[in-house]
From TrEMBL:
<dbReference type="GO" id="GO:0008654">
    <property type="term" value="P:phospholipid biosynthetic process"/>
</dbReference>
<dbReference type="InterPro" id="IPR013328">
    <property type="entry name" value="6PGD_dom2"/>
</dbReference>
<feature type="binding site">
    <location>
        <position position="31"/>
    </location>
    <ligand>
        <name>NADPH</name>
    </ligand>
</feature>
<feature type="binding site">
    <location>
        <position position="248"/>
    </location>
    <ligand>
        <name>sn-glycerol 3-phosphate</name>
    </ligand>
</feature>
<dbReference type="GO" id="GO:0005829">
    <property type="term" value="C:cytosol"/>
</dbReference>
<keyword id="KW-1208">Phospholipid metabolism</keyword>
<feature type="binding site">
    <location>
        <position position="11"/>
    </location>
    <ligand>
        <name>NADPH</name>
    </ligand>
</feature>
<dbReference type="GO" id="GO:0046168">
    <property type="term" value="P:glycerol-3-phosphate catabolic process"/>
</dbReference>
<keyword id="KW-0520">NAD</keyword>
<feature type="binding site">
    <location>
        <position position="101"/>
    </location>
    <ligand>
        <name>NADPH</name>
    </ligand>
</feature>
<feature type="binding site">
    <location>
        <position position="184"/>
    </location>
    <ligand>
        <name>sn-glycerol 3-phosphate</name>
    </ligand>
</feature>
<feature type="binding site">
    <location>
        <position position="129"/>
    </location>
    <ligand>
        <name>sn-glycerol 3-phosphate</name>
    </ligand>
</feature>
<dbReference type="InterPro" id="IPR036291">
    <property type="entry name" value="NAD(P)-bd_dom_sf"/>
</dbReference>
<feature type="binding site">
    <location>
        <position position="133"/>
    </location>
    <ligand>
        <name>NADPH</name>
    </ligand>
</feature>
<feature type="binding site">
    <location>
        <position position="101"/>
    </location>
    <ligand>
        <name>sn-glycerol 3-phosphate</name>
    </ligand>
</feature>
<feature type="binding site">
    <location>
        <begin position="7"/>
        <end position="12"/>
    </location>
    <ligand>
        <name>NAD(+)</name>
    </ligand>
</feature>
<feature type="binding site">
    <location>
        <position position="131"/>
    </location>
    <ligand>
        <name>sn-glycerol 3-phosphate</name>
    </ligand>
</feature>
Length: 323
């Protein structure tokens, strides 16, 4: 199975490295000419995954058309750009493994739903879980959810992608796997705010637990399964991203908690903090589904410029609830 990767950021590059294990050929599409040149010329992605020696069997291209010979495509462009890149790719019936985490602004669609609109004949799988790209690229032990309704395709993808340090857990719940990854990015911003504002570890633990309740309510309302939300792609990824400044979303939250404006924090970065784009559309999708998501609403308020103390006070003064 020849693997193509759409996206030359940190995660696309780390996944290419996984797929190139044992010298298997992998073709990676990157938008930036400097990334293509760096991978083809020096076997590294100096811009997004510096310091990692990439397998020489990874070749990069700036042409989405070049992916037409691949047997499966890993989709790793930021969620808001998936529609545009897939529209330019001759996907046909090639299986798509969605690895981006987010909800599309405007349509409120999960990335898999976007992919299905653009490439209706392509079978869909989702790969998601607690996976900092630099750790995966360094071969550190990692476990993820691989969700696909087609059991035969799931098995073939798992055989192609799994390795001793990259363990895949099978699921048939594509929606649940996607919702965990999208929602945890928003909650990670909130946990970063707690850190940046110096609110303490008790507050962070409370936020993780109440955030998980929020993720579960939304996930169940959208048709996800409870066991997926408590698995690697839900709770597992929430725990990882809510506890480390290696997370871009958590780091963005730290800056917000210190009182820095969102526009300045977002303008400073070349890498993507998906939660900033997911939060407002998640708030709308939750309202549509009649689901209460107070932590998400608080993150939206902070991104829109509200004062940290006011937002925290509003969260703490909510009426008492049953757990
Ligand atoms: N990094 C990680 O550890 C993990 C990331 N993910 C998910 O993977 C996805 C990609 O993240 P990641 O690889 O980290 O991204 P990075 O932040 O490392 O890089 C972003 C990439 O997206 C590209 N990009 C920006 N705008 C567009 C566009 N209009 N069309 C196509 N590509 C564009 C950037 O190119 P340019 O420089 O030209 O703007 C760059 O290559 C996200 O959904 C993220 O949540 C999932 C698991 C782990
Ligand atoms: O999704 C991730 C880890 O699973 C990466 O998190 P950040 O995008 O917050 O860095």
């Amino acid at each position: 199975m020849k693997i193509g990767v759409i996206g030359g950021g940190a995660w696309g590059t780390a996944l290419a490295q996984v797929a190139a294990r044992g010298g298997a050929p992998v073709l990676l599409w990157a938008r930036e000419p400097d990334v293509v040149a760096s991978i083809n010329g020096a076997n590294q992605n100096a811009a997004f995954l510096p310091g990692v020696a990439l397998s020489p069997s990874i070749r990069a291209t700036g042409s989405l058309g070049a992916l037409s010979g691949c047997d499966a495509l890993l989709v790793v462009a930021p969620a808001q750009h998936v529609r545009a890149v897939l529209a330019e790719t001759a996907v046909g019936a090639t299986p798509l493994v969605l690895c981006a985490k987010g909800i599309e602004a405007g349509t409120k669609l999960l990335v898999g739903e976007v992919a299905h609109q653009v490439a209706p004949r392509a079978p869909i799988a989702v790969l998601s879980g607690p996976t900092f790209a630099h750790e995966v690229a360094a071969g550190k032990p990692t476990a993820v959810t691989l969700a696909c309704e087609d059991e035969d395709l799931r098995t073939r993808l798992a055989e192609r992608l799994a390795g001793p340090a990259f363990r895949l857990y099978a699921s048939g719940d594509v929606t649940g796997a996607e919702i965990g990854g999208a929602v945890k990015n928003v909650l990670a911003i909130a946990c970063g705010v707690v850190e940046g504002a110096g609110l303490g570890l008790n507050a962070r633990a409370a936020l993780i637990a109440r955030g998980f309740a929020e993720m579960t309510r939304f996930g169940l309302a959208r048709g996800g399964q409870a066991e997926t939300l408590t698995g690697l792609s839900g709770l597992g990824d929430l725990v990882l991203t809510c506890s480390s400044t290696n997370s871009r979303n958590f780091s963005l939250g730290v800056g917000l908690g210190q009182g820095r404006p969102a526009a300045e924090l977002l303008g400073d970065r070349r890498t993507v903090a998906e939660g900033a784009f997911t939060a407002p559309v998640l708030r709308e999708a939750a309202a549509d589904a009649g689901v209460d998501m107070p932590v998400t609403a608080a993150v939206c308020a902070l991104l829109e410029g509200a004062d940290v103390r006011d937002v925290v006070e509003a969260l703490l003064s909510r009426p008492m609830k049953a757990e």
